[in-house]
Automatic annotation (TrEMBL):
Belongs to the HupF/HypC family. One of its GO terms (biological process) is protein maturation. It holds the Pfam family HupF_HypC. Signal peptide: none annotated. This is Hydrogenase isoenzymes formation protein HypC. NCBIfam families: hypC_hupF.
Length: 72
């Protein structure tokens, strides 16, 4: 099963960015999203930003992840 994780973009440098979810920062590749801006939300998988998503959608997914984690 593949799980995509939404991240908020904090920094951009060339083809890499720093994204954050719940205080955890990760370096991601942004090759597929050439018009990405700081503050955008992206869906990531395996270290790559795959698609832009709305902040509301990102927040909904993050809440679902927290709910699942609380059940484990």
């Amino acid at each position: 099963m593949c799980v995509g994780i939404p991240l908020k973009v904090l920094e951009i440098q060339d083809k890499e960015a720093i994204g954050e979810i719940s205080g955890v920062k990760r370096k991601i590749r942004i090759d597929f999203l050439p018009n990405l801006n700081i503050g955008d939300y992206v869906m990531t998988h395996a270290g790559f930003a795959l698609d832009l998503i709305k902040q509301e959608d990102a927040n909904e997914i993050i809440e679902a992840i927290k709910l699942v984690n609380s059940k484990i």
